[in-house]
Amino acid sequence: MKIHAEALLFDNDGTLVSSMASVTRCWTRWAQEYGITAEDFARVELHGRPAVEIVADLLPADAVPGALARIEELEVEDVAGGVVLLPGTAALLASLPADRWAVVTSATARLGAARLHEAGIEPKLLVSADDITRGKPDPEPFLLAAARLGVDPARCVVFEDAPAGLAAGRAAGMTTVALTTTHQAGELVADVVVKDLSAVSAQATAGGVEITTAE
Fold first, then answer.
1. In terms of domains, do 13 and 25 share one?
2. What's the pTM?
3. Most-buried pick from 55, 93, 132, 156 (CB within 10 A)?
4. CA of 32: how far to CAs of 20, 52, 64, 69, 181, in Å?
5. pLDDT in tens, 13-68
6. Same domain, residue pair 130 and 178
7. Are 9 and 145 in contact (CB under 8 A)?
8. Could you report the per-residue pLDDT of 131-180, keeping only the tens digit for each?
């Protein structure tokens, strides 16, 4: 399938890189420190959501600021050796003009930048949880990225591995490409579903980028 776009917007964890082992390690330790039961912890979706929302689901409002700072500290400290570049990421990003793509992550700017740097990825534009008031599945993060790139949201393609991120892309009026890196295909609603970014190639054109996907 061929898709013509002006800009490509990538989720980070589960799309460009995998830090799931680190995420599980850090959040499990965090839950133990805050006395959260295994049952309460198991009912919370960790993937694709801002940490502040997860923390707010589990703790009283007055405990959220300190607990949020603690999980960020744990995850940033665990970055070294805890981030793996996913298949196809390096080749695809290398084929794109720097002003035609951005990373849109639910992580904080500090954590998102640390994970990307560990993987050798240096985007010109990073939209993080610090930049928005409503996280995915709200479209705000992707709409902000499109605005900062100066492109029409309808001419953007979102690459995501999580249902919440795909819902955000759809709500933003963007074309969505789902990766089955963390969820089964049947759990993902998107215009195109691929196994990972190794199934995607891109070529710069005068008007943007032509994407080819192997479905």
1. no
2. 0.87
3. 156
4. 18, 18, 15, 16, 28
5. 999 999 888 888 898 999 999 999 888 888 877 666 788 888 999 999 999 999 99
6. yes
7. yes
8. 999 999 999 999 999 999 999 999 999 999 999 999 999 999 999 999 99
195 and 173 in a common domain: yes
**Domain count along the chain:** 2
Mean pLDDT of the chain: 93
Provide the annotated active-site residues: 11, 13
Q: How far apart are CA 197 and CA 28, in angstroms?
A: 29
d(CA 94, CA 74): 31
- Quick one: 180 and 204 in the same domain? yes
